Amino acid sequence: MHDLNRRNFLKVAGAAATAQTLLGPNMHMLAEVQSEPAKPVAANDHIQIALIGAGGQGQGDTKVALEVPGVKLVAVADCYTGRLDHSKELWGDDIFTTRDYGEILARKDIDAVIVGTPDHWHKQVAVDAMKAGKDVYCEKPMIHLYADGPEMIETAHKTKQIIQVGSQRVSSVIYAKAKELLAAGAIGQLNMVTARWDRNSSIGAWNYTVPLDASTETCDWPRFLGTAPKIPYNAEHFFQWRKWKAYGSGVAGDLFVHLFSGTHFITGSHGPTRAMATGGLRFWKDGRDVPDVMLGLFDYPEGFNLSLRVNFVDGGEENEGLIFTGSEGTMEIAGNAVIVSRAPLEKDPGLMIGTFTDAMQTRIREAYLEKYPLTHPMGEPQLGYEKYEAAHGYSDSYDHFRNFFASVRSRQPVVEDAVFGFRAAGAALLSNLSMDRGAVVHWDPEAMKLV
Questions:
Q1: 10 Å Cβ neighbour count for 442?
Q2: Could you tell me which residues are beta bridge partners of residue 387?
Q3: Which residues pair with 194 in a beta bridge?
Q4: 302-361 per-position pLDDT tens digit
Q5: What span, in angstroms and rounded, lies between the C-alpha atoms of 439 and 354?
Q6: Model's pTM, two decimal places?
Q7: Is 44 exposed, middle or buried (0-12, 13-18, 19+ CB in 10 A)?
Q8: CB-based contacts of 367: which residues, under 8 Å, 6+ apart?
Q9: How crowded is residue 368: how many other Cβ atoms within 10 Å of its Cβ?
């Protein structure tokens, strides 16, 4: 526990007021919308990338990646012909397209790949890419099965290739400020983190549109299945894969993992030691085999608990956030802002003497004031409120890719490597394991193993 909590907090707040734009009383601008200087990039600093898995996330990632100066897309792989055709519409007819990502990895003109495949392909594509000498940006969750993690970490170690996992909040200026504030003692001793991600729409519940030309001719079904159970062609499974355990990781792998990544980054923790989860399929009873409501509780060795909630039928607009509760206040991340509200505990225990005789009350009060002189001249603890906000339009996804490409160029460590990614995804998938077993499950976050 930090001993001069309020002083540390005011020091951080004061620095913010001078180093950042002051928006109003206790409100500070953290970052403007990113704009790279229009300076030329040296020829040997250009990075040529390929996209493997050109669904919504993969295409979205690529659009952001190409905003970073000196980055060029040269190839796309996907199992649906329509997405390969659309890639040419987006990025030019000279883009090389294929259903077989192995053809991309064999090319000498590709420096790095974005892995935007379904979860059950993450490990194999990433491992193959690193062995082929390519750096990797792998979407979250890094793993589909626990056995995936050690293999990905070991491959990165042996090949010396860069791999970054795609939980972009690790690169966010908002999360960086929250980490700084927590370390400075802004809310005292952390005892609980409450995190949520709620949705209330069909698309939010993964009911992605199936194209009218979906068929075994336009979709490479055997390649899509990979290691998944061999079943007859199913367009819903192909285009709405998150709804089935064979290809995805449910709400735990899609959304819990973001909340774990943010919590681990801010607190510096490597993960929980104990987990239990509950939930169920409450509304979207359309054949999927993963829940649409999940609640999880996690014990951390640092002395705090994490409570997570994902709800696909919440009756309101989509929203997400984290609340860090400490001995002297709370810190909330909501949207592109972090808000600290301080209400320090009184240092003295207080009195509850109204049921005693007047004489006894007088004696107790006198003894109490001798032992606990008036701490606050005004009779109340000093409160505090600070809000730090990024400019409208700020993109942590852009910063995450900028960090990735900086590491590709410098060969320095990334902000979210395979170890961090495994610890976040491994913690998240404890939720699925707990629900499957109907029991508390245990995890060793240092060894990254189930206990």
A1: 14
A2: 27, 339
A3: 307, 323
A4: 999 999 999 998 788 888 999 999 999 999 999 899 999 998 777 788 999 999 999 999
A5: 47
A6: 0.90
A7: exposed
A8: none
A9: 15
